[in-house]
């Protein structure tokens, strides 16, 4: 009530006997609930503000937050509020829906519930993006599962069916006919040779055609799966920034004067996603440039390049061919798990020469 900080016990005793303290006590006695509610609101607001600002929506020990709160010399004491202990206050936060609370062996833990419209919109956007990514993965897994089931149905061999041997009379003799092969051979020998040859050629052509169709169906399914994977990688790795350390770039801005225009430089260190420190290849001069002031450099075939954007972002490869009509090229990946893969029709802006 008095907002006074006493130096020692004697000072506290003198203050309680003062006229101002007595006047504050009378004010409090007239409407005690009003002051307690006001102090409780001030305490809870300060506690929640510290929790939101310092820990966000993370789960944290309630006592740790309280210790950080009372470290401020101007804080409001809990004995001026409606709660006698920190446990009562934490339970109240849970009942009011202001925090997610749970009790463990290490004490009570709280997690702030962010009800800010901007925060809620950001969380919804994040959840929507995660759901879309999950849906894409589920669709891809479902497609692969369908292809596997289709392959099993196409190439599944007919399994023989077995039946139980039943004998009506136990005294009856069991006889087996093992002359089937001989009869078949005799029947085949009785046919003309021309008919046998034609039949054999027809069977070979049919089996060859069947094997070709099976190989084509396998290859088409595999190509479709690879194309889906590449589209997913392209969507995930396509960014609006492409600067990478170690690549060679060409300066295309005249804001620095004609002295640096069209000169090549090596990216030495990234400042952030869109800017970097570069060093001229033919001079010991360092510059700080934005990615809008430079462009990628396409070397001659046989030189090493780095993918700076797109599905294969970060991979290293060798330039194999350049198509000047469509401003694209073919690159063979030379390092990592994809070594040997030839990536065709790569756009100029997606690769750049690698500094040696």
From TrEMBL:
GO terms for molecular function: double-stranded DNA binding; zinc ion binding. Residues 120-154 form a coiled coil. One of its GO terms (biological process) is DNA damage response. InterPro entries: C2H2-Znf_KIN17, DNA/RNA-bd_Kin17_WH-like_dom, KIN17-like, KIN17_WH-like_sf, KN17_SH3, KOW_KIN17, Rib_uL2_dom2. GO terms for cellular component: nucleus. Residues 200-215 have a biased composition (Basic and acidic residues). It holds the Pfam family C2H2-zf_KIN17. This is DNA/RNA-binding protein Kin17 WH-like domain-containing protein. It comes from Parnassius mnemosyne (clouded apollo).
